[in-house]
Amino acid sequence: MKINTEKKGSIEKVMVELKAQERNISWLSRKLGLHRQTLIYWQRQDSVPKWHRNAVANALGKSTKELFNA
Question: What is the largest CA-CA distance in the chain?
Fold first, then answer.
């Protein structure tokens, strides 16, 4: 039996997708209308708040399921 060790709401896949699209946290913060430091805080906490996950996924052109195992 395989145990899923991925944390739900983790920002890890978001960071991978940003890199794949040759974008950075500053770009994403502008798209979301949030301060860059907010996203850096999310990165340090390794968590994206539930109420922002849809907006993050939309900005990256992905589904919330793809990015956050929702």
Answer: 42
The contacts of residue 69 (CB under 8 Å, 6+ apart) are 4, 6, 8
Per-residue confidence in pLDDT tens, the chain, 70 aa: 544 445 667 899 999 999 999 999 999 999 999 999 999 999 999 999 999 999 999 999 999 999 988 5
| pTM of the full structure | 0.85
> Going along 1-70, which residue ranges are E strands?
none
Both tokens assigned to 43: 């990165």
Structure tokens at 7: 């944390």
User: Structure tokens of 2?
Assistant: 């395989």
**Distance separating alpha carbons of residues 39 and 44, to the nearest angstrom:** 9
